[in-house]
Structure formats: C-alpha cells, structure tokens
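Expect chain and fold; see below:
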Amino acid sequence: MALHADTARVLTDWRAPDPEQDRLRAAFLRHLADHPDGTRRECVPGHITASVLVLDASRTRALLTLHGKIKIWLQLGGHCEPGDTTLAGAALREAAEESGIAGLRLLPGGPVQLDRHRVGCHPGGSWHLDVQYAAVAPPDARHAISDESDDLGWFPLDALPEPTDDALRRLAARAALVTS
C-alpha cells in the first residue's frame, strides 16, 4: 500500500491555496482513512486519481486532450494503477501515456489543486478525487494521440477551448501562478 501512504503524505503536507481547497484536502484524507483501497479504481464510493496540466517550455500554453468518452477538453490523467508507488509518479505516468511526451517535469510544490467530480466507473456512479499537478514539457516535445483521446492540442492558458469545465479553468489559472 505504498501508493496509499504516499498519497496520504502528499495531502497532509500540501498547503491548500484557499479554504475550499483545504476542505477538499480534508475530505480526501478522510476518504483515505476510511478506505484502505481508496487509491484503487475498485473502491466503489470513489477513488484517488492523478492528473497533470502539461505546459509547454514557455509555460504559456497547455496540452489538452479532447476526452474520448465525455467529449470535452481536459488535462491529462486518470486512474492510479497497481504498479504506481507514488502519486506524483502516477500523474507523470498518465501524462506520458496520454501525450506520448517523455521527459515531463512536475512543477515544484506538489499538487496545484484538488477536484472532486462524479463519474460512471461503477454502476450507480462513484467519485473521482482528483489530485491535479502541472508539468513542463521539454522544448522540443512532440505529442501523440492515445486511444483515450479524440484529439490533443496546445492552447494558450488564457484562451482555453470549448467545451471544457470550470475545474480546468481554475487549474490553468493556478498553474500560471506557480513559480520556478
């Protein structure tokens, strides 16, 4: 259960940017305390997921996926897998798999934000407790569309495509503020 312990550590150490994010952080920690399998997709009430807003080397554009199932533009990411031992590693694995880009580098400071949203992973639905990071792609990065995407594209952080959601808009605004 290395991933479970790492996720609890990440969330315990993370400094939420505002009271709402701190409430989500506390809810995610309660979920982990109540569910030893809380990082696994099999956890029916909900499960931790890891996503990444991939930025270009100038940090002015984000690589977004037109999600194959829900048909909106989103950051890259998804379910933690049995081989994942750290949450940051799960996020980077997901981003590399979905973008085809090697050498992504997470921005310092841990997650950028948290998001909780309803999904259809199980009959009757469940929750994704998404821990959202930001990463920078190498200057010469070339992306490749995965089976999970209908399209991939680079978009200015201040001009995200439609359709998207408010969580991505908040993530892009917060990622733009991360220094170093």
User: Anything to note?
Assistant: The mean pLDDT is 95. Strands lie at 46-55, 61-67, 73-74, 76-79, 105-106, 113-119, 126-136, 149-156.
